[in-house]
Amino acid sequence: MSKLTALLLLSLTSLMSAAQADKLDTVKKRGKLVCGVNDKLPGFGFLDSNGKYSGFDVDFCKGVAAAIFGDASKVQYVPLTAAVRFTAVQSGEVDVVFRNTTYTSSRDGEVGMDFGPVTFYDGQGVMVKKEAPVKKITDLDGATICTNQGTTTEQNITDYFRLKKKQFKLLTFQDFDKVMAAFDQGRCDAVTTDASGLASRRAA
């Protein structure tokens, strides 16, 4: 490594550390952590019957607040859709996001923020109504499939159908409640998202 390259890397590292320190100072002075979460995914991030945020991802917000303030309750939760989760961090609307987000190498470089460690490993699934004559995904040739807007789920299902040389229509919504409403109303033949999300919705 040349001296110039080493100095450049050192400078970039110093800038990143300063930015992170500034963010931490801002959070400390404010007296609370502003945490972006999902509010419509039981088990991960949702509003319970008492109007309180609960779930696996929400607990990470509490953990960070406890680490900073010694008090897990010093959190302001901001519900975010998949379409706005990155811009919310970029704009400073939230300090951090703990919600279902697929970590990809392209996102790691494109969205201009640091991903923390992976907290949950999942796969994508497809759900149909019990009475539907569907045994495998290729049986959905020509079907309408609903999913979230602005997600890797859109690209994955599109790539899969193209690979299998099958046709389908994609119907997307920002809010997953609207995805499920369209499914219940018969506007789509199937719904696709994280397998854990489908299990959560099916249980509810």
3D architecture notes:
This protein has 204 residues and is an alpha/beta fold. The chain has two domains: 31-110, Periplasmic binding protein-like II (D-Maltodextrin-Binding Protein, domain 2); 124-203, D-Maltodextrin-Binding Protein, domain 2 (3-Layer(aba) Sandwich). It has helices at residues 3-30, 56-69, 85-90, 105-110, 152-163, 176-184, 195-203; strands spanning 33-37, 40-41, 45-47, 53-54, 75-79, 96-97, 124-127, 143-148, 168-173, 190-194. The strands form three sheets. Strands 7-10-8-9 form a four-stranded mixed sheet, sandwiched between helices. It is elongated, with a radius of gyration of 20 Å. The chain starts with a helix and ends with a helix. The model is unreliable at 1-16 (pLDDT under 50).
Instruction: Kindly give the count of domains.
Output: 2
Question: Fraction of residues in helices?
Answer: 40-55%
Amino- and carboxy-terminal Cα gap: 56 Å
Beta-strand content bin: 15-25%
Strands of the biggest beta sheet: in what spatial order? 7-10-8-9
Which segments are poorly predicted (pLDDT under 50) over 5 or more consecutive residues? 1-16
Number of strands: 10
Oligomer: single chain
Task: Give a quick set of tags describing it.
204 residues, alpha/beta, D-Maltodextrin-Binding Protein, domain 2, four-stranded mixed β-sheet, 7 helices, 10 strands, elongated, disordered N terminus
